[in-house]
Amino acid sequence: MKYEKEISRRRTFAIISHPDAGKTTLTEKLLLFGGAIQVAGAVKSNKIKKHATSDFMEIERQRGISVATSVMSFEYKDVLINLLDTPGHKDFAEDTYRTLTAVDSVILVIDSVNGVEEQTRRLMEVCRMRDTPVIVFVNKMDRDGKYPFDLLDEIEKELNISLHPLSWPINMGKEFKGVYSLYDKSLNLFTASQKATEDNTVPIPNLADKLLDEKVGERDAQQLREDVELLEGVYGELDTEAYLGGKVAPVFFGSAVNNFGVKELLDTFIRIAPLPLGRATDKRFIEPTEDKFTGFIFKIHANLDPRHRDRIAFLRVCSGKFERNKYFHHTRIDKDVRFSNPYSFLAREKDVIEEAYPGDVVGLFDTGNFKIGDTLTEGEMMQFTGIPTFSPELFKELVNKDPMKTKQLEKGIRQLTDEGVAQLFTQHGGNRKIIGCVGELQFEVIQYRLLQEYGASCAFVPLAFYKACWITGDKKAIDDFVRFKQSNVMEDKDGNLVYLAQSEWFLNTERQNNPKIEFHTTSEFKTAMQN
Ligand code: G4P
Fold this sequence. Notes:
Layout: H1 4-8, E1 10-17, H2 23-33, H3 37-46, H4 56-66, E2 71-76, E3 79-84, H5 93-101, E4 105-111, H6 118-129, E5 134-139, H7 148-159, E6 162-165, E7 167-170, E8 178-181, E9 186-189, E10 201-203, H8 210-216, H9 218-235, H10 240-244, E11 248-253, H11 262-272, E12 279-280, E13 285-286, E14 294-302, E15 311-319, E16 322-323, E17 328-330, E18 335-337, E19 355-356, E20 361-366, E21 375-377, E22 394-400, H12 406-419, E23 423-427, E24 433-437, H13 440-454, E25 458-463, E26 467-473, H14 475-484, E27 489-491, E28 497-501, H15 504-513, E29 517-520, H16 525-530
Parallel strand pairs: 1-3, 1-4, 4-5, 5-11, 6-11
Antiparallel strand pairs: 2-3, 7-8, 8-9, 9-10, 12-13, 14-15, 14-21, 15-20, 16-19, 17-18, 17-21, 22-24, 22-25, 23-24, 23-27, 26-28, 26-29, 27-28
Helix pairs in contact: 2-3, 3-4, 8-9, 12-13
The protein binds guanosine-5',3'-tetraphosphate (G4P).
The site of guanosine-5',3'-tetraphosphate has 18 residues, from α2.
């Protein structure tokens, strides 16, 4: 346990939200508290602009900028915080899902006006798979939103998680007066555009105190007393174990744009958020405190500029110490590799990093050796698990438009799918290739990159599939199924059998007709079920 001190001061997390709930704004405010002010401007420019949604080149360009802010590290009260950015654009949702495998907890931002939205639901499903601890930040309390009790109800029902408010709002919209901290028993009075250094908190350990009436007025003081009595009766003390197990999510109310409620959130975060956690491999569970280095690749970022063909692979350190220029074992290709220029994301440090510890993320320049999920060790042969692929939403057949460039096309599509840009399904026993993506823009990215980087031109024919399901179960039942459903059964890149269903009705019918077969909507069904 050589590196316990380094491990215990690290927290690695992501902020997730439906677009526009306030993720970027909250990120900036957290960075301000961390003193990483020079980065704050970059966060805004990192955000994919709304008007650019139809222009994938612009989005990619902005994604390029975002490499620098993919991981924002800052110190707050002696804790080293690694905040992993997740793309807001829904067409790149897979990137976000993978980033969630590299964090130890998340902060979920909910817009008080819109409540639980589509992307919130999906992201939370991914968190549920790994029981990731969640803190909820209800944002935009300065607007007329849903009533707090109704909102809590909605979140609990829709996201299937128990909540535990740690602060409580006094009114909302124009009448918003602030929040009462149920933990500190103090009143934090709202002022618009609060400075990071400004402190408007007043300790009120006993709510019966007349000071409360003085501060917020009699009517609101009375309402707060009633609310808090109700809350304390229902919730009691926060069960931190339940939070760490992903069963209970503490809730804060605030207004990110006004820098309000952010400090309480951050103070609680560093107090309760998990230290870098261990990870499962196909051989054994790796504890972060193990002396030997292990880590895995969770994201690969390609450079769209043809003059710079290098890619950056994002490595999450899981145990031991990562060192520059030291040989590590790349277990999938069974080769030793070393990195002379590992890229540091630490805002205030120079670009090259000498060492990194569990919880840290290192950028590795890659010329095509890595794919998502690849594992580096000090020699032990194993592979990290828990980085599942999810069923795509759109399916198109890949048509080669230039038979002279077949090899280039095959190579290109293999490398792009290794990067996780899209999923490739090949017809079982055939050569038909189907590409599955989360959003339309990904098809454009593939077409463009195949041409620019590999000189291969292709076209896409839309297919009316609804979901891809990995199938497992009784061997004979599977063999029969594959024979009868030949045109719907494909293989993924690793040779696993996948059934492409035309509609929910078809999928349900097949499920009923084939009780000995299991249909899974993620590739890592075993891990998903075990965790
Ligand atoms: P996102 O990253 O989750 O997509 O959201 P982002 O932070 O960009 O916020 C979306 C919009 O919501 C922004 O307004 C932002 O200013 C606003 N916002 C964030 N927090 C609050 C809050 O507490 N109260 C209110 N009323 N608004 C908030 P925009 O007009 O889209 O962009 P901008 O021009 O203000 O940057």
